[in-house]
Amino acid sequence: MHLLGNLVRLSIFLSLISATSVLAQSSKSPGKSIFAANRSAANALRVTRPSTPPPRIIGKAAIVIDARTGKALYAKRADEKRPVASTQKLLTALLSLEKGHMNESVTVSKSDTWVEPSKIYIQSGQTYRKSDLIAALLVRSGNDVARCLARNHSGSQEAFAHAMNAKARRLGMNNSNFKNPHGLTATGQYSTARDIGILARAAYYHRTIRSITRIKRLPFRFANGKKTTFNNTNKLLHRSKYCNGLKTGYTNASGKCLISSGKNGHKEIIVVILGSNSSNIWNDSEKLLHWGLGIKS
Q: Which residues are known catalytic residues?
């Protein structure tokens, strides 16, 4: 886990250097740099739509978006309100990363462990680095970790839900309402494929989240010294060399859900499928991802 922490710190350091370089160039020759940036942005944001029809999928709702622009390339019941399970943990991660710092210590409370299923079994009184908990949240999808991060952020799960909804509105997720940090079924909790696409795009362009969600196997050390390795719940990372993230989800109410991201040359695509099943979620996600990236099967 020290390696992950070092990678995260290096990523943040490089981003700061990049930002400083841009500011320096702007101050030297503002007119030239602005026009050059505009030309570069115009070229970079040109959307290339697939030349073939999209594949048919089983999932009840879906969307494919161009990650650079947010433009939808395909949609199926994308505005239908549905439970989205653990895909909403991307929002939990975003909020956790906005407050405090990555290496701060987080102590587990007994109430954090009162959740089922999909736990990594952190124990009351144990202390972890926040970076390690966020990694376990995104790779192994621990519900107990989600509760721990939520309480650490806002004091309670209820207060954190308010923070989630406020952040969702700021992102433009206007058809969502969140009641908890982990996605277990709750009355009045819902989102849509389109809103989850907006969330996924924000997460995709967050360097820390992006670097974590592409990890296939995560070494993890518990506070009591026990070591383990968590396999990423996103099997598409193993199936497709183009996949580079993002997040799985499942409850009985939501069905199988998957946000997958991928890159092929200059093309970067995010796929959201909600309400699928075990037999189809991986195949359908891979088909849509490859279709959006222009990869011929």
A: 86, 89, 141
